[in-house]
Amino acid sequence: MNRKEKQEAKAERYRALARSSRQKADDVCRQSNAAVENIPFGQPILVGHHSEKAHRRAIEQSQRKMDKCLEYNNRAEYYENKAKSAESNTSIYLGDDDSVDRLQAKLDGLVKMQETMKATNKIVRSKLLSEEDKKVKLSQMGYSQNSIKELMTPYLGELGYPKFKLTNNNAKINDTRKRLEKAKTMKNTENKEYSIGDCGIVENYQENRLQLFFSGVPDSGIREQLKRNGFRWSRFNGCWQSYLNRRQLDRAKEILSEK
Hints:
Number of helices: 8
Largest sheet: 5 strands, antiparallel
Number of strands: 5
Strand order of the largest sheet: 1-2-3-5-4
Radius of gyration: 30 Å
C-alpha cells in the first residue's frame, strides 16, 4: 500500500468514526427528548407533590443525555476535520513511492520560477526600454495587466520582484535539491534486517522508516518509551516505527537493551 492509498484509508477511517459519532449523537438526543416527553412544555416542578422526584429525575436524565449529544457532535466534528486534513495533505515524504518524481517536479517548478523572476526583473529595471516596451514584453511573458502594474510599481524601493523573494526561492531550490538526492540514494539503498533479543529490526530505506517487529506485545513500559521517542504503531505494517535516522537508531537500541 503506497502513501496515497494509506492517506485515503486513514481519511475513510476518520469519516467512519465521524459517522458513528453523529449516529450516537442522534440516538442520545432522541433519548434526551424521550426522558421529558410526558412532561407538559413549561410545566414547573411541583415542590412537595408526589411527582416532584420523578420530574427532577427526568430533567436530570434529559440534561445528561443532551450533554452526551454535544460531546458526540464535537467528536464527530473533530474526526471530520481529521479526514479533511488527511485528504488535503500534499507534503512530499522521502518514503513515498513517487517521492523522486514529485521532488524532481517541485525542483523544476522552483527553478523555472527563479528564471522567470530574474527575466522579469531584467525587463522592468532596464534603462534601455521604454515603459511601453516593458509592458509589451511582460505581456508576452504571460503577465496580466494588473500584474504588470504591480511589477512596475516600486516595492521596498525595488521594481519587479524584491531581492528577498529570489533569495527565499533559491533557498527552497537548494533544500529541494538536497532532498531529491537523499530520496534517490534511499531508493537505491538495500534495507537492513537484524535482531536485538526477540525484536526484529528493519532499516527500511525505501520507506524512510525504522521498524521494530516484536514477537509479542511489548510491556507497557516499553510501549511508553517508544511513544515518548517518536515511535508509533503501524497497523499497516504490523510494527512500531519512526523516521529512519541515527538518533532513532540509537534510541531504539537503548530501549531494547533495557528490556
